[in-house]
Amino acid sequence: MRMIKASSPLIQTKALNKSYSSGEGVETPVLYDINLTINAGEFVAIMGPSGSGKSTLMHILGFLDGQSSGEYYFKGRSMRTMNDDELALIRATDVSFVFQSFNLLPRTTVLENVILPLLYHPTIPANERKDLALKAIHSVGLQDRALYRTNQLSGGQQQRVAIARTLVTHPAIIFADEPTGNLDSASGRQVMTILQNLNREGHTVILVTHERKTAEHAERIIHILDGKIDQDTRDFVRAMANQESPLK
Known about the structure:
By secondary structure, this protein is α/β, with parallel strands linked by helices. It is built from 8 helices and 10 strands. The strands form 2 sheets. A 6-stranded mixed β-sheet has the order 6-7-8-3-9-10, with helices on both faces. The chain is globular and about 50 Å long.
């Protein structure tokens, strides 16, 4: 059964900007005036060409980087008010990532890879780790591969292991960074179907991609161009709804 989506913002940014400084003091702006709201339970694709700033935005939203100016609110709280311990706790419990390159340990089993995030989890006891990992592996259809080494699996299977590893901590948000980039089309569709199913179960999914067909699996597409939000399909739907006249 699909969980009911919450209406309160899970993520909100206000006039968020990001620049990088070179060793010579030269500022290179990457993101400009990003105003964004994402509610719990959404499936959002952040789409744009290489160099558009989409991955930088994902890194900020996922607490891997910080903004240069502006505000980022997570569950209603400003990131600026969080200390290092609080940020580390959020990274361990609330956010999780699926990467294009899988980032698996090649000479260890599927089960060992999926258990890994639980070793650093502050509240899940050791005696529950194996059962939680097996449940996550089952959810991506790899229960018969749990004791295989990950270098014995196909690319599509390895990405499914990466998704299971993401799920095992029950994060508030799953970030997927070009998750189909290293896969053939059939494996890519399978991975995207898994992400869609996870969203239907109530997980918030934020996908970063440069591929239109991949982005279309999401319910909402945010297009980034030259560091700015160029289009948000939710804004488009709202505009169309406001133009409609009520039936008389």
